[in-house]
Design brief:
- By secondary structure, the chain is mostly beta strands.
- The protein has a single domain, classed as Jelly Rolls (Sandwich), CATH 2.60.120.
- 14% of the residues lie in helices and 40% in strands.
- The strands form 2 sheets. Strands 1, 3, 4, 6, 7 and 9 form a 6-stranded antiparallel beta sheet that branches. A 4-stranded antiparallel beta sheet has the order 2-10-5-8, with no helix packed on it.
- The relative contact order is 0.24.
Length: 161
């Protein structure tokens, strides 16, 4: 089995056998359900909310010489219209940004973009502790991507409430 096939197989085992039971209480008029996270970074610590940005985009242009231009990692979650994602976020150093995409296909486009350039919607940055308050516009699957320009090996903290 090649390395990429092994990674895909491990990812599927993780998604189907170990769906991360992170829940967040609902604020609003939707029934008392919680967000379901179906993917988290592989090094996510559920006790502390800490993880590192383990994926990267590189500048593969002739003048870029394969330099890391974006470090990122992401969570995938399901939400119903009106449901709220409320979470505390913080970085252990550099400015880290986050953006919420309205489908996993947006994640694919981001991963295959030129160093993350594109019209992704609002991108919010933080260094100190910040609260995310985001309301799902419709039922669906969403992706929250945490990213920083260039190489970054520090910790990011994401704790849904």
């Amino acid at each position: 089995m090649t390395n990429s096939n092994l990674e895909r197989a491990l990812f599927l085992v993780f998604v189907f056998a170990f769906v991360i039971p992170i829940t967040t209480p609902l604020l609003g008029s939707v029934s008392a359900t919680s967000l379901t996270f179906t993917r988290a970074p592989s090094n996510y610590d559920m006790q502390t909310g800490a993880f590192t940005l383990a994926s990267q985009l590189t500048n593969d242009s002739p003048s870029g010489h394969g330099r890391v231009c974006v470090m990122f990692d992401y969570f995938i979650f399901n939400a119903q219209a009106g449901q709220t994602l409320q979470a505390q976020v913080q970085s252990a150093g550099n400015k880290v940004s986050y953006m919420i995409l309205n489908s996993p296909s947006g994640l694919y486009r981001f991963q295959n973009s030129n160093c993350g350039y594109g019209n992704w919607g609002p991108v919010e940055g933080f260094t100190s502790q910040t609260t995310i308050n985001w309301v799902a516009p419709s039922d669906g699957q969403y992706v929250i991507i945490f990213l920083t320009n260039g190489f970054y090996s520090g910790k990011v903290f994401f704790t849904p409430q």
